[in-house]
Structures are given as structure tokens and as C-alpha cells.
Design goal:
40% helix; seven-stranded mixed sheet; binds flavin mononucleotide; alpha/beta; single chain
Length: 159
């Protein structure tokens, strides 16, 4: 079962969190995860995956326009499970708004959106993983757990 973690990262924080999410997802048996910057996408792999976990820095209170540009043109994400994560500099800096705006894009593309929410108990992850910059230890662990949960759900839905 293939999963892509796709991110935009200018200064490396979102890339580091993408790696943590991939680390968590890789804990699930029979899952193959590939982390990709939108600037170096492996579109053959992306076409084969069952889930795409998309990450963005928070830029002026929403997600990065680079991801909007990619998603607007993407023809290989529809029908797949989609999940989102964001990094930001500040609590209250808009990371969850960025995530909700991304989720709206995913719905438009025809993706099935999953976050784990409150359905899987603590830690609750309402919209997607959030890290301040590349995260403190607690945020890092939540990112790993998020990846693990998304991978488990993909296997449950698509096996
Ligand atoms: C132009 C610009 C605008 C930003 N706007 C916000 C913002 O509105 N809220 C916030 O918390 N952080 C903001 N940040 C900080 C980034 O979201 C944060 O540093 C992020 O982790 C950067 O991710 P990256 O290292 O993957 O590029 C902004 C950064 C830049 C460069």
C-alpha cells in the first residue's frame, strides 16, 4: 500500500515534519511511504498511491500558494484518501486555518479527507498535525502518531 507525503518547504520545517509523519506511517506493515517536495514530485509514484498527506507552512494565515498551484493542476489525487498538516511560527498564527483551506482543496479534487479527529482517542488531532516550526518533542510525537493513524486507515479502507 503506497502513501505519499507531499509538502512545500522553503526553510526546512515542513520537510522535517513530513519526515516524522512518514516515520509514523512506516510503522504500519505493508505500507510504503515516499516523502516528496512539490518541487521534486515523483508523479509515477503519486499516481500509484492510495493516500496523499499534504503539508504546508502557514503563510500569512493560510497555506502556501505553491501548493494551490500544484493542486489546481494535479490530475492524480482524486479518489484517494487525503490528510493535511501545517507548520507555523506561532500558536494562533493560522495553522489550522491553513489546514482547513487545504482540506477544502482536497474536497474539490474529490479526495476522502481523514484526520483521525477524536475518533482514535488521545491525542486528539482535529484537522491535521500542527508543529510550531519543526515542533517540540510533544508536537513531533503527535506528527508520528498522525502518520501512523493515516496509514492504518488507508490499509483498512483500501486493502
Ligand atoms: C512570508 C511568510 C509568512 C508567514 N506567515 C506566517 C503566519 O501567518 N503565521 C505563522 O504562524 N507563521 C508564519 N510564517 C512562518 C512559517 O509558517 C514557519 O516558519 C514555517 O514553519 C516555515 O516552514 P518551512 O521551513 O517549511 O518553509 C510565515 C513565514 C513566511 C516566510
Amino acid at each position: 500500500m503506497k502513501i505519499a507525503v507531499v509538502y512545500y518547504s522553503k526553510t526546512g520545517n515542513t520537510q522535517k515534519v513530513a519526515d516524522l509523519i512518514a516515520e509514523g506511517a512506516n510503522k504500519i506493515p505493508n505500507v510504503e511511504v515516499k516523502c516528496m517536495s512539490i518541487e521534486a514530485l515523483d508523479n509515477d509514484f503519486l499516481t500509484e498511491v492510495k493516500a496523499v498527506i499534504i503539508g504546508s507552512p502557514t503563510i500569512a494565515g493560510t497555506f502556501a500558494w505553491q501548493l494551490k498551484q500544484w493542486l489546481d493542476a494535479a490530475k492524480n489525487v482524486g479518489g484517494k484518501l487525503g490528510a493535511v498538516f501545517a507548520t507555523a511560527n506561532y500558536v494562533g498564527g493560522g495553522a489550522e486555518v491553513a489546514e482547513l483551506a487545504l482540506i477544502a482543496e482536497l474536497l474539490v479534487k474529490g479526495m476522502l479527507v481523514y484526520s483521525s479527529g477524536v475518533a482514535e482517542g488521545q491525542p486528539f488531532i482535529h484537522y491535521g498535525a500542527v508543529c510550531i516550526q519543526d515542533g517540540d518533542e510533544g508536537q513531533k510525537e503527535r506528527a508520528r502518531i498522525f502518520g501512523e493513524r493515516i496509514a492504518r486507515k488507508v490499509v483498512e479502507l483500501f486493502s
